[in-house]
Amino acid sequence: MLYASRTLMPLCVVSLSQEMGWDKTESGTVLSAFFWGYTMTQFLGGYLSDRIGGEVVLPIAACMWSIITFWTPQLAYLSTDKHTSLHIVVLSRVALGIAQGFHFPGMTSIISRKVLEHQRSFLYSVVASGSHFGTLLTGSMGSVLLDYFGWSIPFYIIGLCGLMWMLVMRYGLINRQRNKLMLVSLNEAQLLDSGKIKDSRASVPWVHLFTKPAFWSILIGHFCENNAFFILLSWMPTYFHENFPTAKGWVFNVVPWVVTIPSSIGSGWIADKMITKGNAFLFTVLLKYEDTVALCGTALFLFIISYASSYSACLMCMALAVACCGFHNSGIMVNPQDIAPKHAGSVFGIMNMAGAIPGFVGVYIAGHILEVTKSWNAVFSQTAMVCLFGWAVFIIFGTGKKLV
Q: Smallest Cα–Cα separation from 397: which of 149, 214, 186, 126?
């Protein structure tokens, strides 16, 4: 539901921009505004999740972004002035990003605390594949609703579905386990008082982490991979609308995400099968293998699509580029749980904050490049080069060894 809500604007931006009179730069501003807010709450989400539990943070955040999604059409129509309406939509996208920024750090904190080390890659890749299911839901059902009922109806339906999911999650994560959590908390408090265990909520040793090249390598690698993923996520519907206007939206909005789901889950399954618990060297080799496929594979197909001319070839290249991104879920995305298992939520928050920056910088620049050059090849080529840079940094400095 998180990604179904997030990908509604890329799906509807063509129709919305035509109705509102936005150009490419203004459309890029709307698409990238989400990530201004998304960047703000990554660290806070990880810190709060490590302190009070992701099972508390996630439902509150989900309620916020579901309500914002539901009210987006009404916010867009608050003013008849083009520029005022644009500013309102941009602010709503920032607010949506602020609310969604709590999700992945909270989820990472839960997994790092509840799941055994040698099972995390597969579980994380399965959970993260939900993002592709959400994009698939928006691309299929959302495209049909968009074609038949206009752009506002998908926002209402996905917003309501998000609220329903939030209620189910709140019941499953909090109410049913409240007594159990209270009992565990009482037992831990008694053990802490007796000195038998240490408080796991110790401060994160940021100074130590910031001196480690391996920590910087995951920030840079995640930044570069997200730059490609967010540009494809945000601009792919527009690319196909402009280059193949007769193509069906439910096809090009669905196919890339259908092939990404098995790549995401399969990469996690392979990772867990190959991992020997406690073998840091094998962790490192595996992480670098996963992100070689993710970063180099994405770059390769982005270069190829620049020379493709037919609809089927472009769709295949786009699908394979997005599918390669799925390997990232069992590579750098799980690395914070390896290098800082006790502070995974906070470290992931910092990493995802760096990864959110290309959401507003890269997506906006892509729109500006399109407005100035009218060239999709220029967008794809610079995106591929950024991927190769991130791959080189992580290959040289990345590690699966515990740092703190």
A: 214
Contacts with 343 (C-beta within 8 Å, 6 or more apart), sequence order: 50, 204, 404
Structure tokens at 201: 């909520």
CB crowding 313-323: b at 16 or more within 10 Å, else e = ebbbbbbbbbb
Cα–Cα dist 268/273, whole Å: 9
Q: Two tokens at 191?
A: 């053990």
Ranges of the chain whose pLDDT falls below 50: 184-185, 188-189, 191-192, 196-200
pLDDT at 247: 84
**Res 274: pLDDT:** 63
What pLDDT is stored for residue 86 in this prediction? 92
- Burial category of 284 from C-beta neighbours within 10 Å (exposed 0-12, middle 13-18, buried 19 and up): middle
Residue 237 has a pLDDT of 86
User: φ, ψ for residue 170 (rounded to 5)?
Assistant: -60, -40
Q: What span, in angstroms and rounded, lies between the C-alpha atoms of 226 and 218?
A: 12
Residue 40's nearest CA partner among 84, 96, 112, 120 is: 96
How many residues would you count in the chain? Answer: 404
The answer to whether 370 and 27 have CB atoms below 8 angstroms apart is no
Give Cα 377 distance to the centre of its chain. Answer: 24
Q: What does the H/E/C string look like for the chain?
A: CHHHHHCHHHHHHHHHHHHHCCCHHHHHHHHHHHHHHHHHCHHHHHHHHHHHCHHHHHHHHHHHHHHHHHHHHHHHCCCCCHHHHHHHHHHHHHHHHHHHCCHHHHHHHHHHHHCCHHHHHHHHHHHHHHHHHHHHHHHHHHHHHHHHHCCHHHHHHHHHHHHHHHHHHHHHHHHCCHHHHHHHHHHHHHHHHHCCCCCCCCCCCHHHHHCCHHHHHHHHHHHHHHHHHHHHHHHHHHHHHHHCCCCCHHHHCCHHHHHHHHHHHHHHHHHHHHCCCCCHHHHHHHHHHHHHHHHHHHHHHHHHHCCCCCHHHHHHHHHHHHHHHHHHHHCHHHHHHHHCHHHHHHHHHHHHHHHHHHHHHHHHHHHHHHHHHCCHHHHHHHHHHHHHHHHHHHHHHCCCCCCC
